[in-house]
Structures are given as C-alpha cells and as structure tokens.
C-alpha cells in the first residue's frame, strides 16, 4: 500500500474498500443494556510518534473505586495512512496487540474516541468492541457528526447529540464551566449506561479517569520510546 502524508489526497480505491468494510462491520453492532456486573474497566488511547509509529496504552482499573491495577503499552509501525473517517483502521491493530498484554481482562473498555457517533456508526470504540467481542464505549473530546445544544454549565449536565434524527451520543459536562465530552456506546452497550459510567468515572478532571489515565501514560511511555 502506498504511503502518503496526512494532507495528501487518499487513494479512492482504499477509501472505497474501507467504506465497504465499515458497512459490513456496522451490521454486526449490538446496542444493548449491559448484561455484566462492572468490576473491571479499562481505558485506552493511542498516540503517534512522527508519521510512521503508533503507541497504544491500556489502563485497567477496579470499578467503582477506580484503583489502577495494570497499565500496558505497545508500539509499532503504522499500517495505514491517515484518512478522515477511517482512523479506527489506523489505530485498531496496535490497540489489539496492546490489549493482549493485559493479565486481567476488563468487563468494559472506555475508548478515547467515538463509538456510534460516527458518520457510519463505526468509530474506534465500536470497531474495537467488534474485534474483541467486548462491551465498549467512546468518550471523545470533539464532535464528529451531529448537532447539539450546549448543556448547562454545571458538572453532570447533559444534552443529546442528534444525527439524522437519532440520538447518537450524550454531550456531558464533566466539570463546571469546562468544555463537555461526547459519550457514545460502542458495542454491547447502550447510551444510558455509557453515560452513567462516564459520569461515575469523571472524578475531578474533564476526562473520565480510564481515558484520562490512558492519555497520561501514552505521553509517559512515548518518552520511553524516544530515548
């Protein structure tokens, strides 16, 4: 596969092939109330080192105490160039390799990114959930698609994110007067439950603890790689 830089025009054949894959995967997505007792939750995030290396992190926490039990990471070559709307294909391979390093497996994975709040309902959280056959949810910092009314300024305030007449995410204020985050189910999870978990994990920072810690350790481990 030819590699090109971030702002070059993507190969139409690659875009067409990835679109077909997303459409096929989307047919397998299950949105449902969780059928498990949440005792272990993992947060995950990826970071890029230059144009050709990706580093991914999983942090495992006990729930609801949010005590860190494990943190693992893996880095390797990027297998796909950046194409808007298809970031999951770029991040997922390394995330899956990182997940394998966990000694204990989580009941739920909170991903730094989108679940079904994606043009084809297949953000990185949904993508990961399908590959692992695990309940997942996304907590994103920015909106990808849809419209919403700004929630009230107080912590815990919410409003719906609507796309094509459907509520695809909760716009959640995790701290007073701080920009909201966008919570969506990924796979084997529903919006109401995902929102409740995000609220419970938003202790004192904008990001809920699982993804905040994954983001933090991604920066820490990146320095290890650069040495």
Can I get a quick summary?
This protein is an alpha+beta fold. The protein contains five helices and eight strands; from the N terminus they run αβββαβαββββαα.
According to CATH, the homologous superfamily is archaeoglobus fulgidus dsm 4304 superfamily
Return residue spans where pLDDT drops below 50 for at least 5 consecutive residues: 1-7
Category from helices, strands and their pairing: alpha+beta
Order the strands across the largest sheet as they lie in space: 3-2-1-4-5-8-7-6
Oligomer: single chain
CATH architecture annotation name: 2-Layer Sandwich
> Overall mean pLDDT score?
93
* Cα shape: globular
First-last Cα distance: 30 Å
How much helix, percentage-wise, in residues? 25-40%
CATH fold annotation: archaeoglobus fulgidus dsm 4304 fold
Percent of residues in beta strands?
25-35%
Query: Which CATH class applies here?
Result: Alpha Beta
Report on the structure:
By secondary structure, the chain is of the alpha+beta class. It has one domain (12-226): archaeoglobus fulgidus dsm 4304 superfamily (archaeoglobus fulgidus dsm 4304 fold, 2-Layer Sandwich), CATH 3.30.2170.10. Helix content is 29%, strand content 27%. The chain has an eight-stranded mixed β-sheet, with helices on both faces. Helix 2 (87-99) crosses helix 3 (124-132). The two termini are 30 Å apart. Residues 1-7 have low confidence and may be disordered.
Helix-strand layout with pairing:
Layout: H1 12-26, E1 40-49, E2 53-62, E3 67-77, H2 87-99, E4 108-112, H3 124-132, E5 136-140, E6 158-163, E7 166-172, E8 181-187, H4 191-201, H5 209-226
């Amino acid at each position: 596969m030819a590699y090109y830089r971030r702002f070059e025009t993507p190969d139409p054949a690659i875009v067409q092939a990835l679109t077909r894959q997303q459409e096929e995967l989307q047919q397998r997505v299950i949105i449902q109330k969780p059928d498990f007792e949440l005792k272990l939750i993992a947060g995950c995030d990826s970071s890029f080192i230059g144009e050709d290396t990706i580093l991914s992190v999983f942090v495992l926490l006990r729930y609801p105490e949010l005590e860190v039990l494990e943190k693992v990471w893996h880095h390797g070559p990027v297998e796909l160039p950046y194409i808007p709307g298809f970031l999951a294909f770029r991040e997922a391979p390394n995330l899956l390799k990182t997940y394998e390093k966990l000694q204990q497996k989580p009941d739920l994975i909170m991903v730094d990114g989108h679940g079904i709040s994606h043009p084809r309902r297949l953000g990185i959280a949904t993508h990961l959930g399908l590959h692992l056959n695990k309940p997942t949810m996304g907590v994103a910092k920015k909106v990808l698609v849809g419209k919403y009314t700004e929630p009230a300024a107080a912590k815990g305030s919410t409003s719906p994110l609507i796309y094509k007449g459907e509520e695809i995410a909760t716009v959640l204020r995790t701290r007073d007067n701080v920009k909201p985050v966008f919570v969506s189910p990924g796979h084997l999870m529903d919006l109401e439950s995902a929102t409740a978990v995000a609220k419970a994990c938003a202790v004192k920072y904008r990001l809920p603890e699982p993804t905040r810690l994954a983001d933090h350790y991604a920066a820490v481990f990146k320095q290890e790689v650069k040495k």
